[in-house]
Amino acid sequence: MPRDLSKLKGCVAVIPAAGVGKRMQSKLPKQYLKIKDRSILGITLDKFLSFSPVKLIVLVVSSHDTLYKNLREIENEKIIIIDGGDERIHSVYNALCYLYDNGLADKTPVMVHDAVRPCVSHQDLQKLLDAFKSSQQPCLLTAPVVDTLQSVNADQQIESLVDRSKIVRALTPQMAQFIQLKKSIESVIDNKTLITDEVSALCLNGYQVNAVTGQSDNIKITHPDDLALAEFYLEQQI
């Protein structure tokens, strides 16, 4: 349903949830798997619904998805649901086009967050937002790498030690002004550049992106073992 977003004050969150999660070895898309009695996607949505600076959430789902209708969280008026694309980047772009068509102001802060990162904390969301407001530059949450890193060749033979002091784990949300994000993603799609996150698009288009150190428990649920770990982290947060 169209909305007039020209006067929206606050932050917009885009949550792409159109994937199928093949590595989870499940018949259900991984965002609908349960942690105790709640779906991963439901927990993620609740984190953003209860974070007051976020005034609108654009949830992007597959055009064939009917499972989202069972989520109690989608009844909230803050949530807009639109169809996704072939890849994650296309789903995010669909959300940005919706925002553009409905008049969102160019400088509005937009966060993009993985649907299957339900452990993100309000503390980290606020930390990211504060860093963005302070620098007026794109930002992303990161976590330090604690393991020793080795570079290997095609035969899985060790080639060299990687300096981990210059490496971070790229987490989400990733954040920028709306128009910066839209133009950057539009550019990589037009150039058929394969990327897996928004920061890559922003960097390729010449923007300086700041890393904001967040909590390492902001994990992406990808493999079956991650469900138990996410449950543990969520219990610790409570």
TrEMBL record:
EC numbers, comma separated: 2.7.7.60
PANTHER family in the record: 2-C-METHYL-D-ERYTHRITOL 4-PHOSPHATE CYTIDYLYLTRANSFERASE, CHLOROPLASTIC
Enzyme class label: transferase
UniProt xrefs under InterPro entries: IspD (IPR001228), IspD/TarI (IPR034683), IspD/TarI_cytidylyltransf_bact (IPR050088), ISPD_synthase_CS (IPR018294), Nucleotide-diphossugar_trans (IPR029044)
Biochemical pathway: Isoprenoid biosynthesis; isopentenyl diphosphate biosynthesis via DXP pathway; isopentenyl diphosphate from 1-deoxy-D-xylulose 5-phosphate: step 2/6
Nucleotidyltransferase recorded as keyword: yes
Record keywords, A-Z: Isoprene biosynthesis, Nucleotidyltransferase, Transferase
Recorded family membership: Belongs to the IspD/TarI cytidylyltransferase family. IspD subfamily.
Matches recorded under CDD domains: CDP-ME_synthetase (cd02516)
Family annotation (Pfam families): IspD (PF01128)
Gene encoding the protein: ispD
Catalysed reactions listed for this entry: 2-C-methyl-D-erythritol 4-phosphate + CTP + H(+) = 4-CDP-2-C-methyl-D-erythritol + diphosphate
Gene Ontology MF: a single term: 2-C-methyl-D-erythritol 4-phosphate cytidylyltransferase activity
NCBIfam families found in the cross-reference section: ispD
Organism in which the protein naturally occurs: Aliikangiella maris
Domain of life: Bacteria
Protein name, UniProt field: 2-C-methyl-D-erythritol 4-phosphate cytidylyltransferase
PROSITE patterns linked: ISPD (PS01295)
